[in-house]
Amino acid sequence: MTESGLVRRFSQNLLGRDLAVGDIHGYFALLQQALDGVGFDPARDRLFSVGDLTDRGPDCAEALAWLARPWFHPVCGNHDDYVCRYQSCDLDNWIQNGGSWFQQLTEIEQARFAERYRALPLAIEVQTQAGPVGLLHADCPFSNWQGLLDKLDAGVSGGQLRAIKNVCLWSRRRIELLDESGVEGLVALVVGHTPLGAPARLGNVHYIDTGGWYPQEGGYFTLLDLHSLIPVTIGASR
Ligand SMILES: [Mn+2]
């Protein structure tokens, strides 16, 4: 099987835990606090992210340092996609949605961010003892996970890729309809994008954006254990 940059696959972590976090939106210091609170061990554990690394929070410029960490593995979110398209996107719209930090970077820094963000995969698949777990930012455009991977691996482009990205990065259809049908071929699909007061599940689709990026209004980071599919509680180290 050929592998496009749009999908990243990870074999089972036999050494430590695999955790997933919801949208970060520039709150990396609070994310680090949450990781410390569960005894995250960078030598053995891995942190997967459903994307939206930047916009809105105080530590957006830290994103590149996080992306250099060998245990941190995000998919691309709709806000990350603004960075990828920074020369052609709707700037007013982006700034309204928290993008002013990017406008303050030098041209060289902007290019460096865009280059790194363009390498983010759209989909991640992680092997666990129970089977494969998928991560996307918003939702899966197919009822079957393999259907998505086949398209992405085949190197779709143009309008077809745009249509797929539109759902993967932006869709709220499933949660608006409370659609329990789930995604075949996975133990679980983990997504963010839609902030909720507590983690939620529709079929095998897990929603984990609990607003770690609006701590002032009671939001917090959920760290979902990908092997047990149970959120790890702060204060519980190994
Ligand atoms: Mn989002």
UniProtKB/TrEMBL annotation:
It comes from the Bacteria. One of its GO terms (cellular component) is cytoplasm. Residues 19-137 form the Calcineurin-like phosphoesterase domain. Pfam families: Metallophos (PF00149). GO terms for molecular function: phosphatase activity. This is Serine/threonine protein phosphatase.
